Amino acid sequence: MLPKYDLHIHTNYSDGSQTFEEILAKAEEIDLKYFGISDHYEKNHNYSVKVSADEYYNHFLKIKDEASEKGIIMLLGAEVGFNDEEILLPENMPKVHYIIGTIHQMPKNLEEVDYWNLYKKYVEKAVSEFSFQILGHVEGYLPINKFMKPGSTFEDRRNFEKKIAKKYFELEWYKEIAVEMAKNKIALEIHEMSESPRTEVIKIMVDNGVKLSYGTDSHALHQLAKRSYLRRVNEQLGLRADNFLELESFLNR
């Protein structure tokens, strides 16, 4: 059972190349029943949305009405960073249906072991104390710039992330944070572009009652139709519809 939704999509308001209008047209083409825009809203993030909350939200409402006429439900989310002190909500963020919590900003003066131990501390703090609905790309799109050589390719970065995850993000650690995520109703994102997290991690989450979310994290239209990692995960784990978030719960927010 593959979910007919994508909750992680960026527009040209942040670091995407696609507009609200183009995303709606593509969603109709690929038969999405729901989709969620989740641009960056984060203090001190280079690509955080710059326009006012009213300007952004009014544009969203216009396209949401057009989507409704086509039988598609459009949600508004936000991708927001966190550290071990706070979730980094900016002042101009509009009211949203859900927040994808991620880590983009880390201290630059740490060596590798301390760096990834601090990353894990950020995650532990967030799933225990912060208010958000989805833990995004926990093993993908990691803040690895300080470790990458100039000219590193997309594939280089994804391969490095997989090595980091295997080396530092122990499965026993995931069992610990899964308990907190289930208690606080935080879903785990299956992240298409980085093909993460590992299937072993997804199984741990499901076994501990954590719901799953799905997002392409698309920044361009051709990425919206990608579902290869989701299909592979489904084939290996035999996921059911009730393993995924029920999006109706967002509609009243």
- The CATH topology name reads TIM Barrel
Give the CA-CA distance, first to last residue.
Answer: 26 Å
Shape: globular
The SS-based structural class is: alpha/beta
Which strand order spans the largest sheet, edge to edge or round the barrel? 1-2-3-4-5-6-7
Number of helices: 8
Concise synopsis of the structure shown:
The protein has 8 helices and 7 strands; from the N terminus they run βαβαββαβααβαβαα.
Give a written overview of the molecule:
By secondary structure, the protein is an alpha/beta fold. The protein has a single domain (5-251), classed as TIM Barrel. The chain is 38% helix and 13% strand. It has eight helices and seven strands. It has helices at 20-29, 53-69, 112-129, 154-168, 171-183, 199-207, 228-237, 248-251, and strands spanning 5-9, 34-37, 73-81, 98-102, 134-135, 187-191, 212-215. It has a seven-stranded parallel beta sheet with strand order 1-2-3-4-5-6-7. Helix 5 crosses helix 6. The two termini are 26 Å apart. The model has no long low-confidence stretch (mean pLDDT 96).
Which features would summarize this protein structure in a list?
253 residues, alpha/beta, TIM Barrel, 8 helices, globular
